[in-house]
Amino acid sequence: MLNSLVLEHYSPILVPLSFIYGLKFTENEVLLGNINPIGLFFIVVSLLIYYDRVHKKNKEFLLAGLVLFFFCYMTNTYVAYNIITIGLTLVSLCFIAYGITDVDFSTKSQYIYLSLLLIFIGIVVFIPYERNNMLPYGMSFLVMSLGISILTFATLQLPFK
């Protein structure tokens, strides 16, 4: 874990913010037909900060899930959606869920499962629909923002608790 006062206090805000801005830049560039690494850089930074700040015992599953999730998002961004990438996205979110929960149905775990379901729906349903209709900022960003924010606030320790 990195010892940083800024990351200690502001990581619950930095992770969703950088992830959503990364999605914004990436989706905007996909609609324009360009490739810009700024959005992908923001997504990688948010995933790395999230991995660094989570205190769980199954971090290897979390790391595998985050890497697979990024790979699936990259594949879905620049290649057409198919059943294999959708299945891999589901597997990656299952790895993330196993890595950060104790596989129970406590209130905190239910928030985590809800947030991962929202992320899955945003990645698999809303983003492809909005790409096909050339609507860059619609329901997908609302769903993804809610999903990543709930996941971050449910799993990271907030400084004011």
Overview of the structural elements:
It contains six helices and no strands. It has one domain. It starts with a helix and ends in a 6-residue tail after the last helix. By secondary structure, it is mainly alpha-helical. It is globular.
Short structural summary:
By secondary structure, the protein is mainly α. The chain has one domain (about 5-155).
The shape is globular
Number of domains: 1
Output the radius of gyration. 15 Å
Number of strands: 0
Strand content: under 5%
* First-to-last CA distance: 20 Å
Are there runs of 5+ residues with pLDDT below 50, and where? none
State the order of secondary-structure elements, H for helix, E for strand.
HHHHHH
User: What is the helical fraction, as a range of percent?
Assistant: over 70%
Primary descriptors:
single chain; 161 residues; mainly alpha; 78% helix; globular
Task: Write the topology of this structure.
Layout (H helix, E strand, L loop, with lengths): L4 H28 L4 H17 L5 H20 L4 H18 L6 H26 L6 H17 L6
Helix pairs in contact: 1-2, 1-6, 2-3, 3-4, 4-5, 5-6
